């Protein structure tokens, strides 16, 4: 009897020290993943430095993908917040660390020299590893195509990664994001060549895409930076931040009827 009482007491004690008892038999249907977007970055350095910076400093990301070989490292659990986006905004949501998964790609970004800026291309095997990871994340979190963003999309005043050599079209071909129909763009471009929309129109269309951009009708540095970020994604041959007929056509085809 004394042994039985002791066992009961130990069981009760274990229950007290282990926290409250939780009943998990019921699950609410009114829920969704905290993850709304995936944000892509390049590390601006090699693999050893990338691992050191992302594990020993304040900055972090959920995943890091090496270049050769394209090993996928999980550095932060998806249920936890990684410090990768900083001051950021998309579709009205701000400070996106809380609602995004960050993926860093080992890539040196760019170097400036006497002949201009040189960007490092992404290794094809690295891109294929990224696509496999993106498909897995999007399926598990039930993200719609178009939920993948660049750091330059969510912070265009501060960041340019993943840069103009990142293969966004390859991701579109894999079904991961919408892509403007080339024939529709050409038709709209011909019309816009006759009459270019106002700066306010460009600002409104960029806002419809999700960008944080002024809406004052002035072609200021902030507006140019957002235009350049959009162009780096959808027209990588020229990303000068100038509002032109082709950029207008891309915005219209991607965003639907003009306002």
TrEMBL record:
Gene3D superfamilies, alphabetized: Peptidoglycan recognition protein-like, PGBD-like superfamily/PGBD
Reactions performed catalytically: Hydrolyzes the link between N-acetylmuramoyl residues and L-amino acid residues in certain cell-wall glycopeptides
EC numbers on record: 3.5.1.28
Spans through the membrane: none
Occurrences of domain N-acetylmuramoyl-L-alanine amidase (ranges): 23-163
Keywords, comma-separated and alphabetical: Cell wall biogenesis/degradation, Hydrolase
InterPro entries reported in the protein's UniProt record: Amidase/PGRP_sf, Amidase_domain, NAMLAA_amidase_2, Peptidoglycan-bd-like, PGBD-like_sf, PGBDSf
UniProt record similarity statement: Belongs to the N-acetylmuramoyl-L-alanine amidase 2 family.
Protein name from the UniProt record: N-acetylmuramoyl-L-alanine amidase
Organism listed in the record: Pseudomonas aestuarii
């Amino acid at each position: 009897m004394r042994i039985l009482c002791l066992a009961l007491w130990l069981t009760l004690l274990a229950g007290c020290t282990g926290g409250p008892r939780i009943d998990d038999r019921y699950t609410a249907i009114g829920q969704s993943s905290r993850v709304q977007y995936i944000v892509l970055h390049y590390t601006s350095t090699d693999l050893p430095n990338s691992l050191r910076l992302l594990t020993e400093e304040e900055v972090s990301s959920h995943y890091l993908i090496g270049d050769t070989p394209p090993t996928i490292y999980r550095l932060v659990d998806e249920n936890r917040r990684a410090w990768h986006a900083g001051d950021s905004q998309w579709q009205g949501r701000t400070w996106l660390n809380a609602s995004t998964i960050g993926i860093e790609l080992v890539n040196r970004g760019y170097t400036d020299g006497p002949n201009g800026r040189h960007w490092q291309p992404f290794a094809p095997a690295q891109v294929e590893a990224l696509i496999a990871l993106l498909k897995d994340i999007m399926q598990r979190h039930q993200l719609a195509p178009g939920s993948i963003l660049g750091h330059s999309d969510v912070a265009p005043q501060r960041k340019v990664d993943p840069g103009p050599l990142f293969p966004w079209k390859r991701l579109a071909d894999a079904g991961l994001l919408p892509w403007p129909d080339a024939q529709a763009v050409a038709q709209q471009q011909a019309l816009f060549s006759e009459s270019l929309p106002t700066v306010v129109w460009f600002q409104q269309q960029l806002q419809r895409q999700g960008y944080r951009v002024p809406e004052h009708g002035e072609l200021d540095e902030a507006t140019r930076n957002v235009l350049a970020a959009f162009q780096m994604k959808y027209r990588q041959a020229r990303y000068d931040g100038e509002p032109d007929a082709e950029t207008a056509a891309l915005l219209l085809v991607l965003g639907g009827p003009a306002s």
